[in-house]
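Instructor's aside before we start: the two examples that follow are unrelated to each other. I chose them only because their records fit on one page, so don't look for a connection. First example below.
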Amino acid sequence: MFKGLLLTKSDDGALHCALTDIDESRLPPGEVLVQVSHSTLNYKDGLAITGKAPVVRSYPMVPGIDFAGTVLESSDARYRAGDAVILNGWGVGETHWGGLAQKARVKADWLVPLPAGMAPSQAMGIGTAGYTAMLCVMALQQHGITSEQGPVLVTGANGGVGSTAIALLARAGFTVHASTGRLDETEHLKALGASEVIDRATLNAPGKPLQKERWAGAVDALGSHTLANVCASVKYGGVVAACGLAQGMDFPATVAPFILRGVTLAGIDSVMAPHARRTKAWERLARELPPETLAANTDTIALAEAPAMAAKLLAGQVRGRVVVDVNA
């Protein structure tokens, strides 16, 4: 038996979330059994736990789209008992039982090794949000964006993706502008590396198809009007890495930035990213994200506290990253 958060639905469609004892025999099939050490709360986890969006595809379900832990059993030659591993995405916590529990059984293809020198709690302080931020930074750099070309904008700056992206970009030598609706967090964002903080209200309403060229590139976690305005404000040849839809799934834009300024819109998917790209992202995170920056941007909670924290996350009341110690 092990403890985990279990989501169930009653006959009337009501969602229930409870911390309960689960028999190991109920775990779904997979080649690797993992003793989970830490998980985390992402925006998608908040949606799943609260039922605000149809993230979960079947019930009962253990939520949690990522985890770090130690291999207990493996029928795959790539992993042995005692190996430290990380999992992000692959539908875990949506279609396959996830990380907000003390054990998980998953496919070996879904795992990556925990980088040497990184603790499981640090890996989940980064989590899917931080890993996605690194994929965004990698995309900007792969498309040729350099610090000499001008500032880079990060939207949703107080969120998990945004806050990590700021730290990574600043560490790489970029001038970073941060967009947020919580201007009271300006000093925190500047401590992460932002040189300028702007009110998200300047970006989240309908705007002109082409606007003043302001940024060499951008990391956007919001979508909707914000993404449209960001694309309209990026310099000639600039790149926008789009990875989220916190404002909305719509994209009310025109082709003007793309055909008149040569702007590139790079879509970032963290769920199904190839193993080689995942491994590279985690290796870079281990090298490039200072532990002290990570610690200052992370809060740790017990598994029983996750449901209440999920509601706060969706309400925009959480700063940075939330690590869940599943054994606390």
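Example two begins here.
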Amino acid sequence: MIVQTAAVQMRSSVDPEANARDLEQLVRQAAGLGAAFVQTPEMTGIVQRKRQELEKVVASPRDDVVVSTAAKLAGELGIHLHIGSTAIRNESGGISNRAFLFAPDGSLRATYDKIHMFDVDLENGESWRESAIYSPGSRCVVAQLPFAVIGLAICYDLRFPHLFRDQALAGAQLLTVPSAFTRQTGKQHWHVLLRARAIENGAWVIAAAQGGLHEDGRETFGHSLIVNPAGEIVAEADHDEPAVIVAEIDPTQTDTARGKIPNLNNGRDYRVEFSESPDAKERRAS
């Protein structure tokens, strides 16, 4: 079943209401281009690096403006709408970076909380501690849709290939990586990592991105991508401005790719051994 898909590139602000309006405009544009599956970026609802400011506006899923807008749009437009993520007040009172997948009737099909926290110090002096703001998730989520099995991930998860391998082994034909990659890391690694995840799993990859200079001061890379199971880029927003990209995907191409190179079936268990040189053993003994 060939399906028209879309990735929505945004430049979300610190105002969830304004972001919900931008979301609606871009999703309607995507649906107008024939997309039956639409993905938005990480942090669709708010890009805010200061926890104290985020605490003032973060809401439960029941009260969140982006969640309610997305449910309405999915039902009205009759599409699968994947909110790449938004900040949500979770069930324990903390904050989760949570993805929402809505069905064409507006019902909630699946959620996923970002597992891997972006706690890094970059070469240009940028320092990020997502774990100081968000509670990490603990579930690998794969959902059966009418046209494909889809695996859910968010941004920094991209650097942990075992997550995508587990999804592929569970049957995922379409891997998702909605992101807010920094400009620095995006220039270095964005394209190659997304293509690698597609190739090594024989899967489609859709990665809607944030792009440009945001109100909270961060700069994101943009370049939303759709990649086929051979690792070929079939659609790209070749810039960091808000945009919609579309591409037809054929989930059966995953069978073709995995048949040509059956690495998912050829994996074997192994143990790691550390072989120490004799002189190192002597130095350690002395």
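Residues 3-285 form a domain with the Nitrilase/N-carbamoyl-D-aminoacid amidohydrolase fold (CATH 3.60.110.10).
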